[in-house]
Specification:
The protein is an alpha/beta fold and 518 residues long. Among the domains are: 6-20 and 32-188, Rossmann fold; 413-517, ANL, C-terminal domain (GMP Synthetase, Chain A, domain 3). It is 30% helix and 24% strand. It is built from 15 helices and 25 strands. Strands 2-1-11-10-12-13-14-15-16 form a 9-stranded mixed sheet. Strands 4-3-5-6-7 form a 5-stranded parallel sheet, sandwiched between helices. The termini are far apart. The model has no long low-confidence stretch (mean pLDDT 90).
């Protein structure tokens, strides 16, 4: 059996680390041994339902122990998981069910109506599993029974099915910001490598207790899970159902955590909490990824929590979510770090030529984590993987020491009067204003200039500022070609399900406001 088999890795990790309290969720500790036993039994239950190697299993749940149990169980029987954020629309869920050819769905009672409404046309789905399904005995759809999660766990543990490193382990769907979401197939080898590389990068800053608010259905959350397979000593994870800043602060104090994996919007939301009044003296390491971190947000957080340092990293779903990270003993502020072990980064121009240090171009990657190609989309895969490189669509540069700096998304670039305007540059300036909590910038079509810079901001609780004041603030810190001529103050900046800025929604707002003016 290959060492890259994730089910085998989980088993070896338990043998190496020993049984211990590993997962705290909603007031209860779960031991590593009990979770492994439940996964082994649930795996047999899946086999009894006819799940076979290579089958896909959609997992649509908020964070809970059953998510991790389902992942482990699926890998034990040789199946692949298709995790979906529970906030997906019915159309998005239906697309994933049909496109993946999933044979079953694991969900919770609160999302069962959404699942039931999307099963028409998803002919491959044979069953739905729900914790506590005894209270919901009706079928999800004609011929598709709803089964109780606990009933499947009554089966006796079985053996791990042999799978090669190249076999499918997870089929993740992109956010669909440029059209219909595409399936990203990640193999056992892809996920084994990303977990190993993440562990190697953080080995000097191992934390024993951490808070995890990231969706386990997202690639970033999956990375954290796979990284745990490579530890020599067991760690304790405080799992949040979903992120809320006050709840995070309470758990961080109660469990005296040393670390947490967050996205920038979560860190920004934490700035609205009474951090100085909290006992966070054990907190030393914050991992930040999935989106750019404004410099002012980092400075304020570290000033208010003096023991903590924020370590930025970078990746994308197509690279098994890992490309670079700041090492614990070599953090470079403003950079997303060095390429992790086994990863090669090249900055290229539009013709595919390699650029020199300091020159901005598209970030291109080769690593053991890169996907083999999009699911059922060979034409898109050929473009993204042209020349043997993964073309990320992000713009950035390397410095003379090989540290990577991400400037912005290539597709988000605003062309104003012939000048390039990167939304992140404008957002960082706006967020530096003491009244601003979050900011989002997009382009608006303009007859004279091609595009105009448009900003949306939300204010901190109790703060006040006018659009004119914010525009003047931006004008002082940005060139005349960059500062936003239109700023709209909104109650909340739209975020994606994983906490990234939702530019798709912002562009929709711009389009709607333009239509109202015509």
């Amino acid at each position: 059996m290959g060492e890259e088999n994730l089910a085998r890795q989980a088993e070896l990790a338990l043998e190496r680390q020993g049984d211990h309290d590993s997962l705290f969720y909603e007031g209860q500790w779960h031991s590593a041994g009990s979770l492994a036993d439940r996964a082994a039994r649930f795996a047999t239950g899946l086999t009894d339902l006819g799940v076979r190697p290579g089958d896909r299993l959609v997992v649509l749940m908020a964070n809970c122990p059953e998510v991790l149990i389902t992942y482990s169980a699926a890998w034990r029987v040789g199946a692949a998981v298709t995790p979906l954020i529970f906030l997906v629309s019915e159309d998005e869920l239906r697309h994933a069910l049909v496109d993946s050819g999933a044979v079953g769905v694991v969900t919770t009672a609160e999302f069962l109506p959404k699942v039931s409404a999307t099963l028409a046309g998803a002919a491959e789905v044979r069953f739905v599993v729900v914790p506590g399904a005894g209270a919901a005995p009706d079928p999800a759809a004609p011929g598709v029974p709803v089964l109780d999660f606990a009933q499947l766990e009554l089966a006796a543990p079985g053996l791990i099915v042999d799978r090669a490193g190249t076999d499918l382990a997870a089929l993740l769907y992109t956010g669909g910001t440029t059209g219909r979401s595409k399936g990203v197939p990640l193999s056992h080898a892809n996920l084994f490598w990303c977990g190993w590389a993440a562990h190697q990068n953080s080995v000097r800053a191992q934390v024993s207790t951490s808070v995890l608010p990231l969706p386990l259905a997202h690639a970033y959350g999956l990375l954290v899970f796979c990284g745990g397979f490579h530890r020599d000593e067991g760690a304790r994870t405080i799992l949040m159902r979903w992120f809320d800043p006050a709840g995070w602060l309470t758990l961080a104090q109660e469990h005296r955590v040393q670390g947490s994996a967050l996205v920038p919007s979560m860190i920004q939301m934490l700035l609205g909490q009474p951090l100085e009044e909290a006992d966070l003296s054990e907190l030393t390491s914050i991992s930040s990824g999935a989106a750019p971190l404004p410099a002012e947000v980092r400075r304020e957080f570290e000033a208010r929590v003096p023991t903590a340092k924020i370590y930025e990293g970078y990746g994308c779903t197509e690279s098994a979510t890992l490309i670079s990270a700041n090492p614990a003993d070599g953090r470079r502020v403003g950079s997303v770090g060095l390429p992790v072990a086994g990863c090669e980064v090249s900055i290229q121009d539009d013709s595919g030529a390699k650029l020199s240090a300091g020159q901005d171009g598209e970030i291109c990657v080769r690593s053991p984590g890169v996907m083999s190609g999009y699911w059922h989309a060979p034409d898109s895969a050929a473009t993204v993987l042209a020349g043997g490189w993964l073309h990320t669509g992000d713009i950035g540069h390397l410095d003379a020491d090989g540290y990577l700096y991400v400037v912005d998304r290539k597709k988000d670039l605003i062309l104003r009067g012939g000048f390039n305007v990167f939304p992140r540059d404008v957002e960082d300036v706006l967020v530096a204003h003491p009244a601003v909590a979050l900011a989002g910038v997009v382009g608006r079509p303009d007859v004279r200039l091609g595009e105009e810079v448009v900003a949306f901001v939300s204010l901190r609780a109790g703060a006040s500022a006018t659009a004119e004041e914010l525009s003047e603030h931006a004008r002082k810190h940005l060139g005349a070609n960059k500062y936003p001529r239109q700023i709209t103050i909104v109650p909340a900046i739209p975020l994606t399900s994983v906490g990234k800025l939702d530019r798709k929604k912002l562009r929709q707002w711009v389009a709607e406001s333009s239509q109202q003016l015509t």
